Amino acid sequence: MKFEVSATLVYEALSASTLILNIEPFNSIGQVVLNETFLSAPELKMKSLRSEALTEKRFKLIEITSPGVINIKYTGVVENTVTAIPAAKLFDVAIAKMPVSVLPYLSPSRYCQSDKLYKFAYNKFGNINNAYERVIAIRDWIFNNVEYRAGFTNPQTTGNDTITQQVGVCRDFAHLGIALCRALTIPARYFTGYAYRLQPQDFHACFEVYLGGSWIIIDATKLMPVNGLVKIATGIDATDTALASIFGNLSFISLEVKSQLLEGQFEEVDYQSAAQGYSYS
What we know:
The chain is α+β, with helices and mostly antiparallel strands.
């Protein structure tokens, strides 16, 4: 399927500053960026960078040399192919057989403190033998027990905070899911992207788990079909997939995000079923 995605950002620079934006979709096996534009007004010096050492992301380093209002717009056309994998093939992978690139996603991180949730995870989900069923049980527990509410949490909220407060947004749902999976020795990573059919339109966060040799997308919010996502980045947690990193004196003014289907009819997958998982990799 083809999607057109866009992000329009407005900042006010109070002095010379540097802005690093992570809003461009990432090319992978299941995703191809067909064409794109990245514009600013006034015209600014930009440098394109790409990281694949651990995280999957592309970003723009933007140099702002003088004060003023900065308008930035990214538009891209992206073609996605999401692969359905039967649950029987989504088994635990022995740590000794995991690729080196997967191993960091077993460890606690700043927002996903899996070491603090070990006892809870094993008491609640440890008796489920099938690996994919454990992940689905985690997803459904989060959905049923954590209230989705904007404005309650902040950028410092961790997965451990979310399990205590039982309220949050997509970022918090993802961090909690990652932390619980890692506590059960299931590699898990943060996923951020554009989201078709998400209302209101915005960037969306969920997570991926490594089972049966594939990264499987999991969205505990259940707000939209997982095959309507356009991947921007994956990483350890929100720390290395941030939308914007500001160096200097910049004031954020506004953000507008859009994602629309370009051709044909959207074929929604049964993303709530436990019979199969879906991979973007």
